[in-house]
Amino acid sequence: MPGSLLFEGHDVEALDEVVTREFSPHCLRVGRGDPAPARFRRLHRRGLALYELGWGRPVDVAAGELPDFYNVHIPLAGASSVRVAGRAVAAPCSVAGPGMTLGMSLPAGADTLILFLPQAAVDNAVAAQTGEPPAAALRFAPDLADGDPAVAAWLDTARAFARFAASPLAARSPLAAAHFEQVLVHGLVDLQPHDHVAALPAYAHPALPRAVRRAMAYCEEHAGEPVSVADMAAAARVSPRTLQDRFRLDFGTTPAAYLRRVRLDRVHQDLLRIADGSASGTVAEVATRWGFTHLSRFAAYYREAYGQLPSRTAGQSDSRGHPGG
Prior knowledge:
It is built from twelve helices and twelve strands. By secondary structure, the protein is of the alpha+beta class. A seven-stranded antiparallel β-sheet has the order 1-3-4-11-6-9-12, sandwiched between helices. A five-stranded antiparallel β-sheet has the order 2-5-10-7-8, with no helix packed on it. Strand 7 (81-84) and strand 8 (87-88) form a beta hairpin. Helix 6 (210-221) packs across helix 7 and helix 6 (210-221) packs parallel to helix 9.
């Protein structure tokens, strides 16, 4: 049978070692209950990876912040609960990405389809539409709302890919597998709300509420100006409360946090230009230009978003008085 059986048996600790090697470090807590056979199978691993995992015991998994990949959970059996960035995901299926924490509570009978999308693949999908990759990893709204027909079709495609990958045809037609990969990566970027949606062509997110699109466009156009949530709400033609609710539901964040991420992206691009010699200035000057007046707080935000100090991006040393966190 195509694919690889990575583990089968009752030794949860042994399974945990295999899962850690294949995925990333995490903490595991095993609950009480009669053990059932656990099974871990890799269905596909080329441009992206696809797995099927059942622990055979009730478990709580805390994966911490994900590195350079996106993790999509699609339950096949059992009612699991998932937390992304500390927030419970209301939908049965979920997506988490680089820099986001991931936690799961799975019953003994849970069986899950797990899709791993490399950050580079998602960046390339964005670049195909915009001409350049995003300055930072996309942060998707964690809830994959299967009540949306487009999302439901995407999830059906992922399940169909699992069936294809488990069939003899997969080994005989790698080009067909590559087409599945492209559909899944580009489809996710186009249908699932994320914090770079304003940079994509307007047709990419026709289902996103117009008010949210107007607020995002306002952030892009006025990122270097004093902007309040009330300003964003006025541009979106809704109340501040409605805008707060829409951003929470569609992105798992707030309008203020979205504006901050837009500004951080602008800072990041300016610092890269300083680093390559096409621009000059200090980190403090760039940060202030984009509305960050509390420099130590800015440095913390920047390090959380990009994994390094802003002075390092600019190729400058903290000893010259730039904010270092």
